[in-house]
Design brief:
Strand content: under 5%
Number of strands: 2
Order of helices and strands: EEHHHH
Shape: elongated
Amino acid sequence: VAAYGRPEPESPHWKLVSPVGCRAGHWRSWSFVLPPLDQRTTIMKKYLAASVAVFVWLLLWDNFLSGMIIGSTISTLPGINASYSTLWEAVGDLCIALVLTGLYARTRSIFGENAAGGATYGCYAGLVANFPTWLNMVVYFSWPYRSAWILTITFVALSVVSGAIMGSVYKAMGGAKAA
């Protein structure tokens, strides 16, 4: 499997076809053949188990830990809605878990299927998502600079823990079955 989760053209999951008007070896001449059903089920089980584990972690964070850790910082920010819907909070957490785990599932061969690899992925994903977000809140909405750094560091740490959870789940569920 290539670095980004896509099989190499030489692997048994690719076959060469000759569409009309396409030279041999051109990328459009490759057709993807799905892996066997048992391998696809294993891949989906890992993805769903890791997503559920991250979802539970995010719910734990939102409902219990965030108020204790960054509650005083959040209370100083202008425009924060204190009476939010817990249903939409859960929907947001589910979307975050599915997307974060989906990206890890596609790039896990780069980072590794273990807690350390997942944590490294979480660090990268957290920096990419949170650094520009909170910096823009300072620039466009006049949030305090100190609060933006607190939120950036906190949410990168949250992403690192989420990544470690994903990596641990993937490692616990074992490698993919041979085709």
